[in-house]
Design goal:
Largest sheet: 5 strands, parallel
Number of helices: 13
Number of strands: 18
CATH superfamily of the largest domain: tm_1862 like domain
Number of domains: 3
Helix content: 25-40%
Structural class: alpha/beta
CATH architecture of the largest domain: Alpha-Beta Horseshoe
CATH topology of the largest domain: pyruvate-formate lyase- activating enzyme
Strand content: 15-25%
CATH class of the largest domain: Alpha Beta
Shape: globular
Oligomer: single chain
């Protein structure tokens, strides 16, 4: 086995795991290739968070199996889907040589090497249980593990915790990823310094709940504000430090004042509210209501005047009524969040929400989704129009995927692969450059402008 092709599905947190596995395999002598047909190993890191992600994972695996050029090619399937569905996948996907759960990220190289002299398609039959046994240590990223970055060299994700302790009724993450585990500050800072030395311009901290950082390390242990202070001091050459994601009840004044006082910590607040109706939030097992959400938005904007707020909302949750949707619409109209993601609720096998009464029809879910999306589109357009005539700092990604006649970048107020972008129609620059762009045109999700000299 000399070459490997990686397909990473799902969220940025999953991508970090993919890069750690790829790093170990590169250290073991495998060479990454971009085309599946050139690979001796086809590695797929799956998402298992929602059913649509599971379906995408199955389709991806089957597609790669069809592209195998030789019986000797190994197919390795890792990640959340494996952790969630376990041994049932072995019978459904006999062509897969190795399954690894989320706890086995650090074992991929020896596990794959053990397949070297077995016929292809037989490894799964000898599959060792992927679930962590009682008393064994769950996986947590470690700066000592080799990591092969797959993002553009100017931006990278840094995962600071694993697992989650919030237990929302619709979410399978605690069951899949386990309880909250926080990395020690020294380990995080060690990795951050190495990334900064490699020239990273945007360092994005990711966790299932970033504001829970350190809660498992004891009453006197580190917390997010302290980590950010040390990070800001240790990597002065990184111009953008971004935070994903912040749980609403844990966004403290200390955190907000820290962001306001340190311009390199971007005033971009991704706080997944999920809803604003008190009965719906209670059914979701989210420990807050509309009053807290409204007060939080006001507090963020008071303490951080440049703040951009992003949130996600779910429509069609069991028991949701028209008056609940009306409350959400009123909130969007009143608070006018800069960035919003809207999702249609879907029952997930094994979740508490799947058994709740008052299931909403698919037709009604779609109607509510379209109504709220149309409302937010108008709000987003107005927010973007207010930027016309302003000069914004933009991190250049490269030539636009839409047309070679434009460059593409992101303002500090746009997270990678989540929000819109800034199309650059004037000026010269390279991928990874930070440039000043005069915004000349606005759309609901994207902006257009030209580079201006200092």
């Amino acid at each position: 086995m000399k070459t490997i092709h990686l397909t990473s599905l799902g969220c940025p947190k999953n991508l970090v795991d993919s890069e750690l596995m790829l790093g170990q395999l590169v250290a073991a002598g495998l060479q990454p290739v971009t085309e599946p047909g050139e690979a001796d190993v086809l590695l797929v890191n799956t998402c298992g968070f929602i059913q649509s992600a599971v379906e995408e994972g199955i389709d991806t695996i089957l597609g790669l199996i069809e592209q195998k050029k030789s019986p000797a090619v190994r197919v390795v399937v890792c990640g959340c889907m494996v952790q969630r569905y376990g041994s049932s996948l072995v019978g459904e996907l006999p062509e897969v040589d190795l399954f690894l759960g989320t706890e086995e990220v650090a074992t991929i190289a020896p596990r794959l090497q053990a397949l070297e002299h077995q016929p292809s398609g037989t490894g799964a039959a000898d599959w060792v249980r992927y679930l962590p046994q009682a008393g064994t240590q769950r996986f947590l990223p470690d700066a000592k593990l080799p990591r092969q970055l797959t993002t553009p060299p100017h931006r990278v994700y840094l995962k600071v915790t694993e697992g989650c302790g919030n237990h929302c009724s619709y979410c399978m993450i605690p069951a899949i990823r386990g309880p909250l585990r926080s990395r020690r500050p020294a380990d995080i800072l060690h990795e951050a310094r190495a990334l900064a030395a490699a020239g990273v311009k945007e360092l994005t901290l990711v966790a299932q709940d970033l504001t829970a950082y350190g809660l498992d390390l004891g009453p006197g242990g580190p917390r997010l504000p302290l980590l950010l202070k040390e990070l800001h001091r240790e990597v002065p050459q990184v111009p953008w430090i971004r935070l994903l994601y912040l749980y609403p009840t844990r966004v403290s004044d200390e955190l907000l004042e820290l962001v306001a006082a340190h311009p390199r910590i971007l005033p971009y607040f991704d706080m997944p509210f999920q809803h604003v109706s008190d009965p719906v939030l209670k059914a979701m097992n989210r420990p807050y209501g509309e009053q807290l959400v409204r007060e939080l938005v006001a507090r963020v904007r008071r303490l951080v005047p440049r703040a951009v707020i992003r949130s996600t909302f779910m429509v069609g949750f069991p028991g949701e009524r028209e008056e609940d949707v009306d409350r959400l619409a009123s909130f969007l109209n009143d608070c006018r969040l800069e960035q919003v993601g809207m999702f249609i609720y879907c029952n997930e096998e094994g979740s508490a929400a799947a058994t709740l009464p008052g299931q909403v029809s698919e037709e009604l879910k779609e109607q509510r989704f379209q109504r709220l999306m149309a409302l937010q589109s108008d709000i987003s357009l107005a927010v973007n129009q207010a930027r016309v005539g302003q000069v914004e700092e933009v991190l250049v990604e490269g030539v636009s995927g839409e047309t070679e006649l434009l460059l593409e970048g992101r303002g500090w107020f746009q997270a990678p692969e989540i929000d819109g972008c800034v199309y650059i129609n004037e000026g010269n620059c390279r991928a990874g450059d930070l440039v000043r762009v005069l915004i000349s045109e606005a759309h609901p999700y994207d902006l257009v402008g030209g580079i201006v000299s200092e």
